[in-house]
């Protein structure tokens, strides 16, 4: 037998990137702004999404993809708001991949304005997988602590927005909004930072207006 | 802990290359893994060793070259390596930086045996 050295030079996640690029192209051409929400479990992704959906629903067509290891619970919560939602259960995998989103793509109505994807709760693995989103938002809840950005740099580096959640708890916690913002901006100076409380409604309007402005840019680009 | 998913993607490429090359065995797999790839080399090694059984790479050695996070300042053109993930130029304090390397998740080469 002969021994052969083969120079490959391929990205290991190249096929995920390729599928993600196709998803992004299709959705953006249809005028759909896709937002991928990343965070650790329990930081308030679904609750934030419920508030966002309540504000947007009267004037906009929405769709939601929910990623979880098990159960339909989160998709059910969104459907109760009258918004179509698809649940992806990964059966153990700690992140969504582009091919999982691709399987649902044909079900998303073309007249949708905004598609929200709630990733599996995990601040590490989802950061490595492009899902074809136009915007990536990383959530940091006040109870998690203001030191998280430096501990999980990739999530903050690859995000477009930092959404601090459960801000109503800040007065009760040793959590400094300034420190959290500083840490995150040191990793990624281009982050748009929003301070929110899904319980009190703080910051939800600003966030929604930001999404709508981004969608307007997107539709003008593809007009 | 998505190293097993990464290894599954790696094996898709390895299988494709083995078919193309009509390889009998893969004896070496060399990866380049950036410090900011989000992957832990040690876990990747464990996942590789678990996955390789009953494949053409069952006896393959996995070599991982770790790539430091190398950054170039777009303002003063300085190049530097940062271990602390602070994206501020240590010389001129600019935040206009470009990552030159350190995010790789790359299959560099393989060594295979064939008739």
Q: Kindly report the name of the CATH homologous superfamily of chain A.
A: P-loop containing nucleotide triphosphate hydrolases
Radius of gyration of chain B, in angstroms, nearest whole number: 18 Å
Biggest interface, chains and residues, is: A-B, 33 and 37 residues
Principal-axes geometry of chain A comes out as: globular
**Helix percentage range of chain A:** 25-40%
Write down the CATH topology of chain A: Rossmann fold
Low-confidence stretches of chain A: none
Question: In a nutshell, what does this entry contain?
Answer:
Chain A is of the alpha/beta class and 223 residues long. Chain A has 8 helices and 8 strands; from the N terminus they run βαβαβαβαββααβαβα. Chain A is globular and about 70 Å long.
Describe this structure in words.
The complex is a heterodimer of chains A (223) and B (115). Chain A has 223 residues and is of the alpha/beta class. Chain A has a single domain (30-221), classed as P-loop containing nucleotide triphosphate hydrolases (Rossmann fold, 3-Layer(aba) Sandwich). Helix content of chain A is 36%, strand content 22%. Chain A has helices at residues 14-29, 45-56, 73-79, 98-104, 148-151, 153-157, 177-187, 204-221, and strands at 2-11, 33-38, 62-68, 85-89, 114-118, 135-141, 161-165, 192-195. In chain A, strands 4-3-5-2-6-7-8 form a seven-stranded parallel beta sheet, sandwiched between helices. In chain A, helix 1 (14-29) runs parallel beside helix 4 and helix 2 (45-56) packs across helix 8. Chain A is globular. By secondary structure, chain B is of the alpha+beta class. Chain B has one domain (3-113): hypothetical protein PF0899 fold (2-Layer Sandwich). Chain B is built from two helices and six strands. Chain B has helices at 3-21, 41-51, and strands at 25-34, 61-67, 70-73, 79-81, 97-101, 105-114. In chain B, the strands form two sheets. A three-stranded mixed beta sheet of chain B has the order 2-1-6. In chain B, strand 3 and strand 4 (79-81) form a beta hairpin. In chain B, helix 1 packs across helix 2. The chains are: A alpha/beta (223), B alpha+beta (115). The A-B interface holds A 1-16, 93-95, 97, 124-125, 127-129, 150, 153-154, 157, 186-189 and B 1-2, 5-6, 9-10, 12-13, 17, 21, 23-25, 27, 31, 36-39, 84-88, 95, 104-115.
């Amino acid at each position: 037998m002969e021994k052969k050295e083969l120079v490959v030079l391929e990205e290991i996640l190249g096929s995920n990137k390729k599928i993600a690029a196709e998803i992004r192209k299709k959705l953006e051409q249809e005028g759909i702004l896709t937002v991928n929400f990343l965070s650790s479990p329990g930081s308030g992704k679904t609750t934030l999404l419920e508030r966002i959906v309540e504000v947007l629903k009267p004037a906009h067509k929405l769709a939601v993809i929910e990623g979880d290891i098990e159960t339909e619970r989160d998709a059910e919560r969104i459907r109760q708001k009258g918004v179509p939602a698809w649940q992806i259960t990964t059966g153990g995998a700690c992140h969504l991949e582009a091919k999982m989103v691709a399987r649902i793509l044909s079900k998303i109505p073309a007249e949708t304005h905004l598609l929200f994807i709630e990733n599996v709760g995990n601040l590490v693995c989802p950061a490595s997988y492009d899902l074809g989103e136009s915007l990536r938002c990383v959530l940091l809840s006040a109870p998690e602590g203001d030191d998280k950005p430096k501990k999980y740099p990739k999530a903050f580096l690859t995000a477009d927005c930092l959404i601090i959640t459960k801000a109503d708890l800040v007065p009760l916690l040793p959590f400094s909004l300034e420190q959290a913002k500083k840490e995150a901006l040191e990793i990624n100076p281009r982050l748009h930072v929003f301070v929110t409380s899904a319980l009190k409604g703080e910051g939800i309007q600003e966030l929604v207006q930001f999404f709508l402005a981004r969608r307007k840019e997107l539709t003008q680009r593809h007009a | 802990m998505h190293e097993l998913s990464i290894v599954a993607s790696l094996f898709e490429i390895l299988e494709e290359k083995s078919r193309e090359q009509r390889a009998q065995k893969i004896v070496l797999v060399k990866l380049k893994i950036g410090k900011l790839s989000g992957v832990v080399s040690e876990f990747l090694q464990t996942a590789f060793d678990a996955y390789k059984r009953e494949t053409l790479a069952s006896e393959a050695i996995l070599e991982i070259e770790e790539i430091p996070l190398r950054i170039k300042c777009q303002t003063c053109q300085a190049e530097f390596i940062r271990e602390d993930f602070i994206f501020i130029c240590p010389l001129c304090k600019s935040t206009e930086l470009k990552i030159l390397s350190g995010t790789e998740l790359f299959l560099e080469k393989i060594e295979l045996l064939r008739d």
